[in-house]
Amino acid sequence: MAALKEWAIVCDALKDGLQTLLLRKGGILEYKQGFEVKHDSFFLYPTLEHQSSEYIQSDYRGKFNRTYANSMQTDDQNYVTIRAWAKVERIYEILNANALAKINDYHIWNKKYLQLRMSYNASRPLVVLVIRVYKLVRPLKIEIDPKWSGCKSWIDIKVPEYDFLNATAAFNKSDLIEPVLVDSEFEKISYELEEALG
Length: 198
Known about the structure:
This protein is an alpha+beta fold. Helices cover 25% and strands 29% of the residues. Strands 1, 2, 3, 4, 5, 6 and 7 form a 7-stranded mixed beta sheet that branches. The longest helix is centred in the C-terminal third of the chain and has 15 residues, at 183-197. It is globular, with a radius of gyration of 16 Å. The model is unreliable at 27-32 (pLDDT under 50).
């Protein structure tokens, strides 16, 4: 099943309902074509690659330091714990940096990071994914495959027990996942983002 690599601190913010969007330009291995939305649902794979408190809003730096410390102190560096799954609800493409100021309250990155993202591969748009995030009731601890390393966005993980996520009927009845935000909260945020970016 598909998984999207994202900073561990951002995965936490998504899981905790503090963020409902992702900003992507693509990794170094995706430079030529830019970021592609290859999947409309995916696991959130937390990574420390390129993660830095330098690019996080000041309100979240304490959380960042705790997340980073906890990640470095785990007993087994050969495993990763996946705690959330997401569905893409809306996609926007941004070429004008001024639009980013309108969505500052919906993510934890700071202005320096946004400027960095916009200037990287400048001919390509910044892709904004509005995602509905679901917590895994039983987090997945999986062994890290070396081929997942490097500057790439998408990886494929084997988790047969979650294959049902691809079937709408089974997904709606599942007790293995629960939405981070209730419908009304998510709909309100989606509307506000549409007003800002649509």
